Structures are given as C-alpha cells and as structure tokens.
Amino acid sequence: MGESKTVHSPLITYVSMLSLLTLCPPFVILLWYTMVHADGSVSQTWDYFKQHGFQGFKNTWPKPTAIAWKIIACFAVFEAVLQLFLPGKRVEGPISPAGNRPVYKANGLAAYAVTLITYLGLWWFGIFNPAIVYDHLGEIFSALIFGSFIFCIFLYIKGHLAPSSTDSGSSGNLIIDFYWGMELYPRIGKDFDIKVFTNCRFGMMSWAVLAVTYCIKQYEEYGRVADSMLVNTTLMLVYVTKFFWWEAGYWNTMDIAHDRAGFYICWGCLVWVPSVYTSPGMYLVNHPVNLGVQLAIYIFLAGIVCIYVNYDCDRQRQEFRRTNGKSLVWGKAPSKIEAFYHTTSGEKKSSLLLTSGWWGLSRHFHYVPEILAAFFWTLPALFSHCLPYFYVVFLTILLFDRAKRDDDRCRSKYGKYWKLYCNKVPYRIIPGIY
C-alpha cells in the first residue's frame, strides 16, 4: 500500500486510532459542554463529573435529534450541489505515487461566497435563524460523531469494492486500512471528489458558517456584538477566505496529495474542524469580553499580518512551481535544488525545491504564522480560562507532527537531494531554534 505504511508504524497507528476513537468523540462533547454550559471553566466541569460520575457524563451527552440531522443534511447537500454545479477553472493536482494526475474544478471561493450570502440572507429575511444552530450545537456534534464514523465505514467498503483510481489498495491490515484509508482520490462518479468535499466544502465551510452563527447568537442574546467577538470572527473569516482563495494550492498539500481518505483525515475534517477549530468563538458567545478600541485594533492587525505571511509563504512556493523556478523571490532570482525521484511504476521525475525567501528561513516556516494567527484570534477571550486556547495547543502539535511526517516522506522520496536541501535549510519550523 506504500503511503499508509510510511505514515507511521503499525503500533503508532493502533495507539492513535484507539485514542481518536475513544478520546476524541467524548472530548468534542466535553468541549461543547464546558464552553456552553460550564462557563468555559474546566474545573466547573470537573466538579460536576466528580459529583455525578459516569452517569453525569451520560446525561451531558446530547442525543442526535431530527433537527440536528436535518441541519447537517441541508448543509451537506447544499455544499455538494455547489461543488458539482458552480462553474470553476479546471485545475490539475500533483502527479500521484502511481503516476495519476487528478483533475479538479476550482470553484471554492464562489461556493464560499454563495454559502455566506445565503446563510446571512436566510437570517436577514427571517427565513431561518442561525441561533437555532447554536441552540442545537451539542446534538449536531453528536450526530456528526456517529454519522462521520458510518461515512468512514462507507469509504473503507468503497476502497475495497469500487476504488476510483490505481492510487488505492490494502495494507492487509483492517485497522490500518480503516484508519489511514484505502484510496488517495476517492470519487463518486467522475466529478464528485470526496476529499475536496470532506476537507474543504464541509470542514472548512462549517468553520466559517459557525463563526457567523456565534456572532449572530451573541447579537440575539445581548443586543450587540462585543469587540472581542468581532475580532475573533473577522480574523477567522479572513483566514477561511484566504483558504478558499488558495484552495487549488491546498490540493497540492499533504492532506490531499499524500494522506489517504480514511478515518484519520475524514473524521477529523467532518467532526474535529467544526467543533474544535471554532471553539474560541463558541466560548465568546456567553463571554462578551470588552477589549476597548485600541487593544482590539492591535490584536486584529497582528492577526492579519500572520494570515498574510501564511498566505505569502504558500503563494511564493506556488508561483515558484508554476514558473518552473523562474519567478522572483523577494526581488531576486530564487535559490533552488533540482531533485530527482522515481514513481512507484519506476518512472524518473524531477522536482524543484525552493531554498530562499520564506522557504530559506525553515523547511516549514509557513506553520509559524499559522499558529500565531490562531493565537491572535483566540486572544480576544483573554485569560480567564485556558480552554479557549486548546485549539492553539492542538494546532501546534498537529503541525509539528505534520512537519516531521512531511520530512520523513521527502527523505524517502528524494534521498540524497533531500540531504542536500536540509544542509541548505537546516531548521524544520522555527528559524534558529527547531
């Protein structure tokens, strides 16, 4: 199976799968319960469970209700229709290990605009009140936990019975196949790309939709939106807008081009993104912190700078690849290494590795502004409670792990050229430190 064997050893796969299966679903519910019903206080939640034990936990776990399923279904169908039918430029993805080149329709920005305009329009004209989504948030997360698990079983069966391309196959181990995935590019029919749907159109889109939901809920609750909520929501929306603006570039990243569509990535995008990534805003709904104009502007500007640098890192590399190393980097000709590698079918290919600009500072420098941006859109919550900062901590661990996995993959792909590259760019993420 190639890719799934090199991702992590079987032991780490078992441990991470067991922890994802046993710890993450209850954590999602605990996070929601603490933010919404326990004032964002971990100790308050802890005291409640100390008093009521396992029964208390069972009582706090909301049952997936008909309205929750209805909200999820309407959202999923709406996004699927936009993905299929909105016009978009034809974009080719990178050549896969088996030598395939996936083709996409880049209509993410249009789908994003239509989604937000529709959602705000439904609220404005009194057709649907987004506050309902917040009021049923626990049930929605509960339904997503179970629904996404069933969806991952469907992906596993599809990978066995009807794979979409030759970039698929079994490792011979059921757990590894289910966890890391059977297919690299699963599709329904010729045009509906499942990973683009789970990662971008459901996961990332729900982030923006929930950010707006929290804002509207606070407005309905208090008759105004606190400056802390405005800074948080605006920064998150700017970040998600940047994501959809650059979506075609995302299709070249590890998530799409190397990680197969299994429980690890699909469950994460369908459940973890809407619940954990939006959690600073979830906390702020009932905690309208007043920052004051000056502090609000400082935090906002710091966040914008980080999002811009994160975008510029990706843009720089994309431009470098698009022009085959002929674009200027920071006004100068780029410094680069030409690396050769073989596909699984034995074909010899070459890649250019950029070693100047942002990419000369460290091999994954773009993760630094990404983590800092998350910090700045959480900062409006200030420091009464630590739980709003969980996403920042999680993101840091996720990106450090991803940097290591990417380095391992490149080392085995490029061999001596990667060694040359590491000599030129010695730091993995933080220049001068790591």
TrEMBL record:
It is a multi-pass membrane protein. PROSITE patterns: STEROL_REDUCT_1, STEROL_REDUCT_2. GO terms for biological process: brassinosteroid biosynthetic process; cholesterol biosynthetic process; sterol biosynthetic process. GO terms for cellular component: endoplasmic reticulum membrane. It is found in: Endoplasmic reticulum membrane. GO terms for molecular function: 7-dehydrocholesterol reductase activity. The keyword 4Fe-4S does not apply. Its EC number is 1.3.1.21. The chain crosses the membrane at residues 12-33, 67-88, 109-128, 140-157, 261-279, 291-311, 371-400. PANTHER family: 7-DEHYDROCHOLESTEROL REDUCTASE (PTHR21257:SF38), DELTA(14)-STEROL REDUCTASE (PTHR21257). This is 7-dehydrocholesterol reductase. The lineage of its organism: Eukaryota, Viridiplantae, Streptophyta, Embryophyta, Tracheophyta.
